[in-house]
Amino acid sequence: MPDTNIDKLSLDSLREVLQQAGYRVETVTDPIANVAYLRSATNGLAFDIRAGNRLADGSAEFVDIAFTAILQVQGDLPLDLVNRWNASRRFARLQLSQPFLVLSLDVCVAGGVAPNHLRAQIEIWDHLVQQLITYLREELPKLAPVNTPSPGAALNHQPKVASPGDDAGESASSVSAA
To answer: Based on the number of CB atoms within 10 Å of its own CB, is 105 exposed (0-12), middle (13-18) or buried (19 or more)?
Structure first.
C-alpha cells in the first residue's frame, strides 16, 4: 500500500495490510447474512475483522472495521472479572453475553490515517488479545470454587473458557489459544 493517507478500506486492501503485518487471512462469508468478512488468528486464537460503515457511493468500500474475538464460556463468569479487564485496558472492550465472552476493537479511517497508524491499530489488537489470554489464565484459577450441597465432596464449578473449535472441556486454569 502506498504511503498516502488511507481514508477508505476494502476487504482486499485490508487483507493486504494484515498480510504485510504477518497474518494469514482468509475471506469468509456469513451464510445467514450473506456478508463477507476476514478471519485470522494470533497465537492460535481466531478473530474476525468485519466491515463497518460503507461509503455512500454504493461501493464495497468502508471507513471503519471491527476486530472481534469470541470465546465460549461454560459455567458462570462473574461480571467483576470482565469489569476489571475493561477498567484496566484502553482501546478494546470485553463483553459477556452468556455463553460468550467477546473482545472487540473498532478502528476508523474516516478523514484519512497514515498507513503506519492502521498498522499500529493492528499491533494494539494483537497485544490486547495476548493480554486477554494471560489475564484469563491468571484470573480464572483465582475464582473461588463453589461447594455443592452433596455430602462428602466439594466440586469445583469454575467457569471454563475456550475459543470456538477448542476442546471446551479444557480447564479454566489451562485456557489455551489453541
So the answer is: buried
Q: What angle do CA 65, 71, 157 make, to 5 degrees?
A: 155
Q: What is the pLDDT of residues 70-80, one digit of tens each?
A: 999 988 889 99
Residue type, 129: V
Instruction: Give the least confident one: 26-35, 140-149, 156-165.
Output: 156-165
- Specify the pTM: 0.79
For residue 135, give the 3-state DSSP assignment.
Answer: helix
Per the structure block, which three cell numbers stand in for 29? 462469508
Looking at domain 11-143+155-165, which of 2.30.29.220, 3.40.50.261, 3.30.1460.10, 1.20.1250.20 is its CATH number?
A: 3.30.1460.10
Mean pLDDT computed over every residue of the chain: 83
For the chain, which residues make up each domain, given as ranges? 11-143+155-165
